[in-house]
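pinned: reference chain
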Amino acid sequence: MLPRPTIRVLLVEDSPTDADLLAIELEDVASGTFEIDTADTLAGGLLRLTKAAFDVVLLDLNLPDSFGVETCERMHQAAPSLPIIVLTGLADEERALATFKIGAQDYLVKGQCNGALLSRAIRYAIERQASNERARVADERLRLISEQLPAVIWTTDIALRFTAPTVRCLFNDDAAVARAGDELSVWLQRVEGPESLLKAHQSSLAGQSSSFDVRWKQRSFSVHVEPLRDVAGCIIGTIGLSLDVSQQKRMSEELNAARHVQQALFPHDAPRVPHFDIAGKVFPADETAGDCFDFIPMGNGWTGLVVGDVAGHGLGPALLMAELRAYLRMLASSNSDVAQILISAKRLIASDLEDFRFVTLFFAKLHGESRRFEYASAGHTAYVVRASGKTEVLASTGVPIGLFADSKFDRGASVVLLPGDVVVLPTDGIQEAQNSDRKMFGVDRMLSFVRAHREEAASIIDGLRGAIAEFSGHRALSDDTTAIIVRAL
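pinned: its structure tokens
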């Protein structure tokens, strides 16, 4: 029989009863031995981290000295390589889901976890964190390698003749051999080099530095030339440096092409639905977005509305979202049950999701004549701002796709939209946009803007984007921002 592993657990929980129950549940687990150290405040938990090593943290979000998502954020900042499992009550599941983007590996609902579930969650969290750490180390190694790739350096004298130890100019290739004493102008003629290089060296003799890009022999180079000075500051020649950026240029061009392809997939025109004004837009943080929105004809007067967000942003999430969009369109053509569509989509895309990827998705359908709005959601929240100003939350009816293999989705309560009502389907890039003080734009600020601006749906989205830009000081987006607005007429 294999020996039972010993797992060191830091339990940060201010309720002695809950802490005792968790400890009791773990006592009789056959898969491992759990050594539990407890703290009833965040400060106490952080102090224990400095005194002992742990394998995992079980963390209550609501503590005497810290509340909500900030609790998880502070713990993750203190121990970024330590897996965190959030403990939450039934009413706090939405907040718990938000901790995944901060660094939590899982969440458990108090009172609904036995020893086997606790043990499995702990061991899976440890393994996921280890996998994430291996990926982070690999990424860091690649970054260091890319930063330390050797550039080509050459020098010339005051007559623009190559000087030792110069052996090549522009790039490491036999075609670029430049020996000491060779004149730069003659070398350029011999290799059919770019004339801009000679002009840059001539300017350097006059004291001017220059940086520029060169396309030569089907390669791209980033070049810098500046005066070479002696200890007295007198110009005694020039020094040049180049880096072959051909691969980066190709990647940039490919990403730009991918952006154009993805933009072509997004709807160019909003659907015409009786009694409604509808608009949707996505604003990518990178060349391509992990967010998406879509309008899907479903027959019998129904129109499908989709807003989704793959964790992360860039090319990988964009490819996953394009795949998911295709699945949703295929499923919606033959199925009108919004919950069943999500279940089927989850099954189709599950094998393509990496361990650290998950997708939040809101799928709704709208009927113009009856004004009915039905939905199902995978970890995604939407809002109805009534004509009276009152807000109704369209809560998630299931966990994000990719978190659990056996997750199910229910239909949310059907909503009737009356004239003056506005439905807001945002991705979290809107409410999580930050200003220089790291304060978030937030749901309340988003909904207040919608209440105050009930003009055309497209204008609401553009105005909301402008409000976010002003709030954040017009800084570059850190996450994709996407929304669909449905305005009842």
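why pinned: The chain has three domains: 6-147, 152-244, 267-488. Residues 267-488 form a domain with the Phosphatase 2c; domain 1 fold (CATH 3.60.40.10).
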